[in-house]
């Protein structure tokens, strides 16, 4: 999966990675927010979910210490990362900013 993850974040389009856990209540809230984000940004960006319990090495490699943590990558470069729940407008704004 780590190789696949590296390929995913090499995208020309921004890739929003949601590091989450199935037992995490705020992660469930973030997940529904991301559905709205996806509707608004469409093909401008990709959204990828990484379960930190299934892929602890990917989470560790990316310095994830708490869930949910969101990160935006483009061409393999980390552009933005923050923990906590974020709203639709903030995330759409970030993705649009990085998609230009």
* Weakly predicted, low-confidence segments: none
Q: With helices defined by DSSP (H or I, 4 residues minimum), what is the helix count?
A: 4
Question: Which fold name corresponds to the CATH topology?
Answer: Glutaredoxin
CATH structural architecture: 3-Layer(aba) Sandwich
CATH class category name: Alpha Beta
In order across it, which strands form the biggest sheet?
Answer: 2-1-3-4
Sum up the overall morphology in one term.
Answer: globular
Query: β content, as a range?
Result: 25-35%
Mean pLDDT: 96
Helical amount = 40-55%
Question: What oligomeric arrangement do these chains adopt?
Answer: single chain
Structural class: alpha+beta
Terminal-residue CA separation:
28 Å
Order of helices and strands: HEHEHEEH
Disulfide bonds: 24-27
Domain Thioredoxin: 1-100
Active site: 24, 27
Family: Belongs to the thioredoxin family.
């Amino acid at each position: 999966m780590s190789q696949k993850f590296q390929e995913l974040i090499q995208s020309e389009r921004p890739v929003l990675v949601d590091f989450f856990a199935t037992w995490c209540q705020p992660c469930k809230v973030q997940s529904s927010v991301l559905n709205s984000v996806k509707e608004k940004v469409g093909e401008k960006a990709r959204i990828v979910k990484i379960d930190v319990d299934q892929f602890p090495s990917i989470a560790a490699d990316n310095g994830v210490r708490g869930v949910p943590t969101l990160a935006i990558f483009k061409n393999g470069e980390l552009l933005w990362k923050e923990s906590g729940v974020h709203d639709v407008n903030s995330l759409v704004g970030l993705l649009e900013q990085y998609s230009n």
